[in-house]
Amino acid sequence: MTSPTRIGIHDLAVATAGHVLDLDDLAAATGVDPGKFHIGLGQDQMSVPGPDEDIVTMGATAAQQIIARHGVDRIRTVFFATESGVDQSKSAGVWLHELLGLPSTSRVVELKQACYSATAALQAAAGLVARETDTQVLVVASDIARYDLDSAAEPTQGAGAVALLVSADPALAELEPVAGLHTAHVDDFWRPNDSVTAVVDGKLSIDAYLDGFVAAWDDYRTRGGVDIDEIDLFTHHQPFTRMAAKAHRRLAEHTGAELPAERYERSTVYNRRIGNSYTASLYLGLAALLDGDDDLTGRRIGLFSYGSGSVSEFFTVVVQPGYRDHTRASETAAALAARTPMDVAAYRALHAGAHLGSRVDVEIPAQSPWPFHFAGVSGRARQYSA
Ligand code: COA
After folding, report:
1. Residue whose CB lies within 8 A of the most ligand 1 atoms, among 32, 36, 241, 248, for a mutation test
2. In-domain check, residue 2
3. Which ligand 1 atom lies nearest to the CA of residue 114?
4. Are residue 179 and residue 295 in the same domain, yes or no?
5. C-beta of 296 in contact with ligand 1 (< 6 A)
6. Which atom of ligand 1 is nearest to the CA of 208?
7. How far is CA 322 from CA 130, 172, 230, 342, in A?
8. Which domain covers residue 248, as residue numbers?
9. Among residues 306, 322, 338, which one ends one of the domains?
10. Residues 304 and 347 in one domain
11. Structural domain contains residue 53
12. What's the number of domains the chain is made of?
């Protein structure tokens, strides 16, 4: 075993749900000025899952693109990060493992800490790859953000997944070793076991996010992280994309640095259209930066990960030479375009049907445009088809 020089993100793929609601329609139906959604929240659309879609199907759809390119042979670990888990015991990753035909000689586990856990998965993956440099770790972040109808948070719902392949000699982005951390107990957002929608104190969550960001930044600097001037671009966790603007402004105030909006703005283009995807949101921001027109070779990107409750982490990656041969802008554009537009009544009917218990067997026909489907419940166990 040799010590690797570089470990990081070798591939990154995106998936989302099969329906889309335009927030102009939600604004009209609820009597809200559309400017509040587009400007005040920074959201244009939200992805809405159909009955045959869940975190497993979205995660598998994202990961399948990576498998198609790199195969499965070197994958020894699957980390499934989510805060909208479908079982209290079994990792959603085990169903994904089966759907994708991953090697039986692998470990699979689910990680939870609100929107943060994909970052814990990425860091743990880097540690595993450092121990066995010929292996790869598949990190899947997949979530459905559901809030109560007619709540302030309703327009910030969404659904999406990002799959990351972590390896030595990464093609996309090297993960730098320094990270800044901050954990503080706060009841800003959570989802009790008996609820399909999150409980949220929205204003408190914004303050807790910003406090966590500053604290994680300070820890990053204390641990030897680079000066703010050495970070070229940023992507921040985006529960709604305007939150990235608030975070960016707070970092500028805190450091005294000039941080023009051009240094994060491009990171919001996917999240504006997908809505909140919890664990996947930060990595949709990274994908949006990598898929942009600017050549980012050699650029350092700062990433801020926040999970309510709360855990915060700030870390950096460096974009690798030749990365543009490995990005997937056209696949992501196709996934966004493949969504079926729906009206508010249809979206609300899906929202109302979101809670499917396990006590009655049910068969759900395949209907989404994606390769994997939630097929229903049999003998209390979830069934999937490909
Ligand atoms: N045109 C433009 N902007 C408008 C507007 C209009 N017609 N009407 C309102 N706005 C702006 C407000 O001024 C406000 O801007 P500000 O943030 O700069 O103050 C913004 O839209 C939001 O409106 P506001 O009324 O303050 O908030 P809200 O009651 O709609 O709640 C959230 C917003 C984010 C708190 C709510 O959507 C929520 O709880 N979301 C889920 C939790 C979450 O995402 N937390 C983030 C941290 S994890």
Report:
1. 36
2. no
3. 48
4. yes
5. no
6. 47
7. 23, 8, 21, 39
8. 174-322
9. 322
10. no
11. yes
12. 2
Q: How open is the CA angle 113-119-122, to the nearest 5 degrees?
A: 130
- What distance in Å separates the CA atoms of residue 48 and residue 50, rounded to the nearest whole number? 7
Mean of the per-residue pLDDT values of the chain = 96
Tokens of 320: 């690798």
In-domain check, residue 36? yes
Q: Is 207 in the pocket of ligand 1 (CB under 6 A)?
A: no
Q: Is the same domain home to 14 and 137?
A: yes
Residues 248 and 201 occupy one common structural domain: yes
- pLDDT (mean) for 123-128: 98
Distance CA(183)–CA(116), nearest Å, equals 11
Using CA atoms, how far apart are residues 271 and 43, in angstroms rounded to an integer? 8
Q: What is the pLDDT of residue 4?
A: 52
Which ligand 1 atom is at minimum distance from the Cα of 154? 37
- State the pLDDT confidence band at 173, using cuts at 50, 70 and 90: very high
pLDDT tens digits, residue range 370-385?
999 999 999 999 999 9
> Model confidence over 185-230: pLDDT tens digits?
999 999 999 998 999 999 999 999 999 999 999 999 999 999 999 9
Q: What is the pLDDT of residues 229-244, one digit of tens each?
A: 999 999 999 999 999 9
Length of the chain: 386
**Cβ(34) to ligand 1 under 6 A?**
no
